[in-house]
Amino acid sequence: MPEQHPSSQVSSRMTRPKRIAAVVVGLLLVVVVGSWALHADVARDATHRLPENVTELYFTQPNQLPTTAHVSGQELPLEFTIRNREGSPKTYNYRLIYSDGSTQVDLGQDTLVLADGQSRAFSRLVTIPAGQSRGRVSVVLSDKQQAIHWWIERN
Length: 155
Hints:
Elements lengths: L5 H42 L6 E6 L8 E2 L5 E11 L4 E10 L4 E11 L4 E9 L6 E8 L4 E9 L1
Parallel strand pairs: 2-8
Antiparallel strand pairs: 1-3, 3-6, 4-5, 4-7, 7-8
């Protein structure tokens, strides 16, 4: 049997702690890489645009909405758009409502079906009830619990 050099005896005694350290480092590396992989999916989902199923409801020309009703019972133009981005055809029930805090008046309603990606612009004349206070005109999608509002002064 060949004779061992004294330095090889020293290195063989340090092998076990080095092995333990290597196993610990390896396990830590697996945990870090695994954790990163899980969070990479979250980061990707947060930074990449995923398709959303939504209904868009908006005033077609919001800067042109009247701000004042000068005559009792005055008819005012109201233009709004409904766009279906739900991924399938949808039936929409909408209501037009005037409210001043103490009174609520139904200004009209309708039902329509839109294919996915389809939109429809509406142009309605609404009669603002007589009064002296500020009021809110709302377009409400009844089935979606979604609404847009426009404030108007009555004098």
